[in-house]
Specification:
globular; 198 residues; 7 helices; homodimer; Rossmann fold; alpha/beta; 36% helix
Chain lengths: 198, 198
C-alpha cells in the first residue's frame, strides 16, 4: 500500500516523470502461492491502459492457467483495452514427468522468441510465467537474460515468475516480491480444486 | 507449483473428493506487492468456472483497482464466464487522509453486507480486498469474522487481503501467503506509474 512518497530521491539526472515512467522488471518468487496469479492481476491493469500484452507460458499442463488464459483472451478480444498474445512454450513436456532435453529446447526457443519481441518492441507488458525455472536449471543463461533486459529498447515492462529466481536476476530487477507459504490446504491433506488451482 | 500429492492424509471421515471441494478461506498478507493482484488473478479462474464473484473493496482511491474493476466488469458482462458484482466500501474516505469515524462506519457496513451475502450464498468467490486493515484496526471484530466464516453455508470461497492480518484469522484460514518485499522501485526514488500501480 504505497503512499506515493519515495524514501530516497536519487541523483540520476532524471525528472520525477521520467523516473516514474521508467520501464520495470518485476520478479515474483518464493515457495508460496500467488506468484503467477499476481502477474496476471498486473496484466489486468496493463489491459486497462490499452497496452499490448505478451504472455509466455514456460510451463505445460492441461490444467494450469486455463482460467487466466481464457479470461485474458476474452479481454484482449473485447476491443475495450489492450491486446493479448498468449504463447505456450514446451508443448511436449510437463513438470511432473519432464523430458529434460525437450524441456530445455522448448525453454530456449521460448526465450529466443521473447528476445525477438523485445527487440521489435512488440508488447508493453511481458509476462514470463515460470521463467525462473529454466534459469535456475541452467537451460537459459541468466547473465544473458539480465543483459537483454538491461538493453531492451523503449518502454517494455517485464514480469518474471517462479521459485528459485537466480540472484543475478533479483539483483537486477526493479521490484521483487517473495511469496512465502504460511499455510496451504495440501498441508492438511487437501488436493487442488477446480476454480482455485486452475 | 503443487504436484498434487498432499503430504498428509487426514483422518477426517471425508472422501478425497469431499476434501478437495471443501470451501476455502485464503489470506494474502505481508508488506510486499501482489496481495490484491493475486486475489484478482484468482478471480480469473473463478470466472472461467462460471462462478458468481463478489468483490468488496475496503479501500477508496481514485486510482486503485480501476484496472482490475474494469477488466472484471468486462469479463462479467461478456456472458462467457461467471458474473461479477463490485462493491465499493467507504466512498467517503481514503487511506492517505482518513476520517477515522467515517472509515470505521463504512468498513462495518461493508462487513454487514458480506455477512448478508454469505448467509444468502450470493457468490461462490468473495474477494474482500484490504479487509485485513479494518480487522487490524479493530473496526471489525476478528473473532466475529472467523465465526461467520466458519459457519458459512454451502461452498463459498473467501479471499482476504491486506497487511497485518490478525493471528486468529491466519490460524483459521486454509491458505495463507505472506508477500514479502525484497525490493521496490520506491526504494530507489521511483513513484508509482499508470498501468503498474493502478
Amino acid at each position: 500500500m504505497p503512499q506515493g512518497q519515495p524514501t530516497v530521491v536519487p541523483d540520476d539526472g532524471l525528472t520525477t516523470r521520467q523516473r516514474r515512467n521508467r520501464p520495470l522488471v518485476f520478479v515474483h518468487t518464493g515457495v508460496g502461492k500467488g506468484k503467477s496469479t499476481a502477474a496476471f492481476g498486473l496484466a489486468l491493469r496493463a489491459w486497462n491502459q490499452g497496452w499490448p500484452i505478451g504472455v509466455f507460458q514456460f510451463v505445460k499442463s492441461a490444467k494450469w492457467r486455463v482460467g487466466e488464459e481464457r479470461a485474458l483472451r476474452v479481454l484482449g478480444d473485447s476491443g475495450e483495452g489492450g491486446t493479448v498474445a498468449w504463447h505456450k512454450m514446451g508443448e511436449g513436456w510437463s513438470w511432473v514427468q519432464r523430458d529434460l532435453a525437450a524441456g530445455e529446447e522448448a525453454a530456449r526457443e521460448g526465450w529466443e522468441q521473447v528476445k525477438r519481441d523485445l527487440a521489435a518492441e512488440t508488447y508493453k507488458l511481458y509476462v514470463l510465467d515460470e521463467f525462473a525455472y529454466p534459469m535456475h536449471w541452467g537451460w537459459v543463461d541468466t547473465d544473458e537474460v539480465v543483459s537483454v533486459l538491461r538493453d531492451r529498447p523503449g518502454t517494455q515492462h517485464v514480469v518474471i515468475t517462479g521459485r528459485n529466481a537466480p540472484q543475478q536476476l533479483v539483483d537486477f530487477a526493479d521490484l521483487v516480491t517473495d511469496m512465502s507459504k504460511v499455510k496451504h490446504p495440501m498441508d492438511t491433506g487437501q488436493k487442488g480444486q477446480r476454480g482455485i488451482e486452475w
